[in-house]
Amino acid sequence: MSSDIGSTLSSRDPDSLLEHLQHLMESGPGTPVGQALELFLRCTERVRVALPGSDSGETLARSSEAGMAVRRFLDQDRKAGFATANLCDIGHYLKALRNADQDPVPVDAGLGPAGPDRERSGSSPWLDTGREEGPGEAELSSWLADAVDQVEAAAGRITPIRVKQGWVESGRTAEAILTSRGLRAGRSRARTWAALQVVSEGGGELFHRPRLLVGERAGGLPDVEPVLERLQAFPFFHKEAGLTPGAPLVFLPEAAATLIQAVVTLFHGAGERTGEPVGRGWCLTDDPHRLEMPFGGQFDDTGRGSQVLKLADGAHSLATLGEEGHGWRRSFRDPPQRSFSNLVVAETGETRPEHGFLVSELRILRLSPKRFLAVAHGNSLEDGTPAADGGRIRFTFNPWRIPARIRGTCGRSRNTALGVATPELVLESGKSVHFV
């Protein structure tokens, strides 16, 4: 295979990525008897089309990125070494191998999801190895113009409005995993996000402040109809869900992990100040060698479920950047940055509130440094137990105020696929949460 990594990555084809990994493995020093080697490669690209005057200042933006991770098992010592690189040519691969060998840590043979025992069973690290293609620039531009026309026409029958800002963004990720024991898997994913901010032109009560409409879809363009339904459903989602304004929100561990990862670096930097209480119910520690936790999280760059687990960790994750730490990226548009590896939230032993809203699923969109939008799925709480009336709420919050609103945690801590071990998290809605 050609070693032209530029053309390989630009294709965003999982089969080409597998060929490139095979080329790297064959060009390297080889795998000694009694050892096992795993290679993981991910390429991402995104294109964003925005209305003139939007916050980004750009009507068209593109970006792409590629990176790899290696894990080497030393069976005779029951140890494994990890390393990542932000580029994937032969030079960075060899450097990652050296970094992985510097400080291996103990590991049980079957603990790693792509480790020896799992490989012998022949199971794939991904449940779905499909291929998806996202829409291009022309399709995004056409969708945005059509969505603006439909939203303004539909809402105009109630009160005159205009779409003040708006954007639509498509992202695609291609991934491949190759091991010295013969495991090969590749896939590509695509997801499109869109947001429209509408403001009242007639002073109607319905739009007394700007409203944000959000849509998303895996593989293709979002449907406009659900966006129109949400527009005409104001006010408000939390009434349908049976939530009293001001009632506490209780986040199940998976949802709590999403919230924590969205705001944690505001209060703990890149991990230097963990272990110190923040607010009444928030105390975090960071364990970079917690091997049962996943690398990269349960979700890939498109927000889709992933069964690829720890291929890099802890002390050597950012070795190619000249510093130690764990590399983490918020989204397609963000470069890797030093952050946490595996967070552990301290238990405070609070009792679950009798009334409120139990959040089982959570998605968060960063609107500005001091304003995040959250979409939460769950159930009302009645006498501390989930009611049968499942619903969805949307709320904005100031991330800087979250720790002050945390009452504490309920139940026992549980590992989550996002690399956060946490109990249930109880949050006072208060003034930091505004339902929309």
TrEMBL record:
Residues 104-136 are annotated as: Disordered. One of its GO terms (biological process) is proteolysis. InterPro entries: TldD/PmbA_N, TldD/PmbA_sf. One of its GO terms (molecular function) is metallopeptidase activity. Gene3D superfamilies: PmbA/TldD superfamily. This is TldD/PmbA family protein.
